Amino acid sequence: MEIMQSSKHIHLIGICGTAMASLAGMLQARGHRITGSDAAAYPPMSDVLAELGIPLHQPYAEANLTPKPDLVIVGNAISRGNVELEFVLDTRIPFTSMAAVLHDEFLAGRESLVVAGTHGKTTTTSMLAWIYEVASRTHAEFAPSFLIGGVAENFGTSFMVRPATQQVRQPFILEGDEYDTAFFDKGPKFLHYFPDAAILTHVEFDHADIYVDLPAVMTAFKRLVNLIPRRGRLVAFDGSQNVTQCVSHAFCAVERYGFSADSQWRLTNFRQQGTQSQWTLLRNGTVFAELLLPMAGEHNALNATAAAALAAGQGVPVAAIVEALASFRSVKRRLEVRAELNGITIIDDFAHHPTAIRETLRALRSAYPGHRLWAILEPRSNTLRRNVFEADLVESLALADRSVLAAVFKSEAIPPNERLHPENVVAALRARGLQSAVFADADAIVAAIAPELRAGDVVAILSNGGFGGIYQKLPQAIARLH
């Protein structure tokens, strides 16, 4: 874009989205003056913006666009009726999307490595970026640029852009989001990324606000697969018939990973001790490596295997893969221990789908055997706020000893016939003899459960948002009580 050829004032509407905040930092590093606005800010991205010194305006207002910026980037959560978007359209300020800027300004001339799937893509992208980073210590050509949908703790950031060179086509590692791009571009963001190689983790029905059913979701992933060139590679999970269908007409080489005996990349001898996992990884039936990962859960071992498989296929040395996974430090808000006090462990997990909740609780069961496990859920994502997944949610929460649900976030935005009713979930869990309750908000939950917690309890707080500050309020209440 001509407007990007020199330093400009660029304003981002919806800047607190993970990808938007990361893009803001990338553009600032390019020498542009960045401002942004959002309805509400919460960690970790509010912290990222503060550290970058990028002004954040709340709430949305026309005044946030004064003086008039040279370019506006519109987040995909922004719809017609937003006061800033209406001002942009009325005054004809040039505007675009996050994904378009990423393609035009950062991916040209680089090797695009995309991690996609309904679940696991943030963690897998972080693992892949760290593998490349470790490999770059001895092989400079692997030095990665990346954009991740979360703060990767090994890097302390969600993005990095290295200077382009003419000598080698440098890797750019991206989390490929299947959510739509912008109000004017309803296709998935990942269709802008044109991968040279990709990972496909899982394919399930999700984002019920923009996809009508599972076949619609699968169509989006099939289109991503169709973008990979013949010379490219696709690493795909072997335990999902949906994934199998999505990759069945790929023009590139497809390598499957998982527990199946006939997969090119097979996990065997999986074992877990506390929060540490170990397994033997076979490549075409031959031992590739003995892997250790300081994270709990088979789902994280699968994520690591996918990252290892893609990296190995792109020429990354085995030793770098083994070292990187053994030193991997996870992603903020993915099984993140937020507090440990009076023998009570409080864990934050970015739950957005019943399957993600199930795998999180399974991992915690394995990591903390014999402990009483609490699940504290805020139905906040556009998927969890809908009743289409009510039965699945019951099955997932049944893995906890006690579960507590908050009221549906902004329930008025969901049609009554589509809306999740937490009391129905609670009733179904109680019918199974499980203790469950629903409360209006975070404050009510803290007041109710803090006196009930005891040493040895593990509390999983499940939300893809700020959850009314419960991450700070619950530890404070426990400290006061004790």
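Second entry:
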Amino acid sequence: MEKRLLTPIFLDSPEGEATVGTLLQRFQFGDGSCREAVRDILRAVREKKDEAVVASGRKYDAPDLTAAQLPASLEELQEAYDLVERPFLDSLALAIERIESFHQREMEDSWLQTRDDGTIVGRLVRPVDSAGLYVPGGKGGSTPLVSSVLMNGIPALIAGVGRRVMVTPPNKDGKIDPHLLVAAQEIGITDIYKAGSAWAIGALAYGTETIPRVDVIVGPGNQYVAEAKRQVSGMVRIDMIAGPSEVLIVADHTARAEAVAADMLAQAEHDPLALAVLVTTHEPLAGQVVTELERQLQSLERRDIARRSLADRGMILVATTLEEAIDLANAAAIEHLELMIADPWAQLPHIRHAGAIFLGANTPEAAGDYLAGPNHVLPTMGTARFASALGVETFLKKSSIISYSAQGLAADAEHIVRLARLEGLTAHARSITVRSGR
């Protein structure tokens, strides 16, 4: 017997308070069940390099994989263009144009400040030397995640990263989907390797005979990928430890139940752990959305996944006022926030925490996934309180610039020495006095 899908709950009821508590405390450190397995995989890659990567690849992906086949060959890259259709190339070109245009605005500049005494301070902004892009296999390679290639690869390109490396699991025949190969090449990535899961992350972090070590690792993946990124974080930069995809829709009397339900299902079909929440000020809409969810589920290819997600984690909450709904949205700090209300722009100044904000009835979250331009790699599990979307800055680092003149050091010497001696660091103080004569 199937679980009852969803029951609308009033926010000001005891059940509503309990449901909100669950929503606000959804952060999880990940599934610890794979921690030891990932640690063993990473250790094997660090010690045995290509041998370990190939062994795992043979076991889980392509039974006949060899070390020589790890890099995508020039022939495979060229052949990929013959295996995709013209309409795909057209859509790909438009997506690249939009994403590039948006992320170009994110580029940071170096800067300097000068003082009257000749002292100069500032910041030097430079890209990292190399970045690794992980692209999941997508249902055994049958659903190539082209958008992941673009959303991760383009910001690195704009940042000026000298070497961008892509890893993705091969299919059972040792091949990479041609759509992924074409997308990568269209944004200048030809360094592509057939490796997936935790061993691919290990290869990027430690380097092997074939796969180069990188400075930054980005890209989504399953629990093994997330755990591997967590374990190598610190020796390399990672984008984030992402949880299941999530959406919160604030809707009033102007929202169409059909559209609200469609957007909830767009999240629910990702994963049984995905989170789809509706907070509405219009009680009749709540019941209408439940009916629409049941109706639309029947036509989805991934309806079993979506149904489980909604039954286990979905929420429909009825708020008394729009202010109450917005307050909840801020407290939830959701990955995707949709404002399907009469005047969404009037509420934008009141939004403090969200990974991405979608304003108005004509702005489904799916548009942001593919073509709008902003990045779809977003903070989840409430981390939008302090974290931001992946962007050009993910691939940049900043160095402080300090240049004292003799006059400037003499003017500051007494203060530096006083603070250094207060901390008991007499050598620090002496490094000043030997120059200033104080």
